[in-house]
Amino acid sequence: xxxxxxxxxxxxxxxxxxxxxxxxxxxxxxxxxxxxxxxxxxxxxxxxxxxxxxxxxxxxxxxxxxxxxxxxxxxxxxxxxxxxxxxxxxxxxxxxxxxxxxxxxxxxxxxxxxxxxxxxxxxxxxxxxxxxxxxxxxxxxxxxxxxxxxxxxxxxxxxxxxxxxxxxxxxxxxxxxxxxxxxxxxxxxxxxxxxxxxxxxxxxxxxxxxxxxxxxxxxxxxxxxxxxxxxxxxxxxxxxxxxxxxxxxxxxxxxxxx
Length: 258
Prior knowledge:
The chain has nine helices and ten strands. The chain is an alpha/beta fold.
């Protein structure tokens, strides 16, 4: 695939590009991401970056640096140090992260480490799964008949426990739609916290697994039945959970039929 005529930035030796790969479908890469893949000497990629996307960089060394909840994974400090070392060795380093690097992707931590080491960098945003993944399931995160706000929430804190510092009552009052990343492990605690905070048990919920990929699956349920229905479904991470009446729009907008 040739990029259309444009002044695309040169990937200079010793630079690191922090780049979002989108939610999974290779067609959702940005052109800047594709340009980076074509020029990189090294691609340091997450577990959720698939082989089709990596195939755009046949010339590059591929380094897996995936972080998956509950599984052995690289420590963040080690990943950041590796990026610095590779750049100091004169490599063109593409740090390729699923979704967007600045949306629950620790891109800010890696960028700060590069800045502290004097490594020049470029930030390339990507389509976040909380928006693009839901769109592939036929769920708009905003709809003027339903909501004027949306809140993005992580399903675990730095220790991989359920996020205990969140003010669930304030979140429930303030936002009609909640989009929860990495929430399957603690779904019972999260659903319980939302119910205790006043969200109705009959509120629509969708769980989208393997979003934007051919194997995408969607569970539609309610907040009160979420934990039991999810356990019975056999679905597994990665997943995005959407809580709110925008889920009902899927009846009309489910363009994939998944």
